[in-house]
Amino acid sequence: MRGDGVLRRIAPAVLALALAGTGCTSEGGDGGGGTEQPKDGVLRVLAGSELHDMEAVLADARTATGVRVEFTWSGSLDGADTVASGQADGKYDAVWFPSNHYLRLDPAGKGKLLSETPVMSSPVAVGVRSTMLSELGWGDGSQVTWGKLGEAAAAGKLSYGMADPSRSNSGFSALVALASAFSGAGAALSDADVAKAAPQLKQFFSGQKLTSGSSGWLAEAYQKAAKQNETKVGALVNYESVLLSMNRTLPAEDRLTVIRPVDGVVSADYPLSLLASAGKPAQDSFQRLSRYLLQSNAQQRITEETLRRPVTTGVTPATGLPAERRRELPFPGTRAVADGLLSAYQNELRRPSRTVYVLDTSGSMKGGRLDALKAAMARLTGAQDPRGQRRFRQREEVTVVEFASTVKSERTYRIPVGPPEAELARIQQEVQGLTADGGTAVYSSLKEAFELVGRQQAASGDDRFTSIVVMTDGESNEGLKDQEFRAWYGGLSGAARAVPVFPILFGDAAKGQLQGIADLTGGKLFDGRGSLDGAFEEIRGYQ
Question: Are residues 46 and 60 in the same domain?
Answer without folding.
Answer: yes
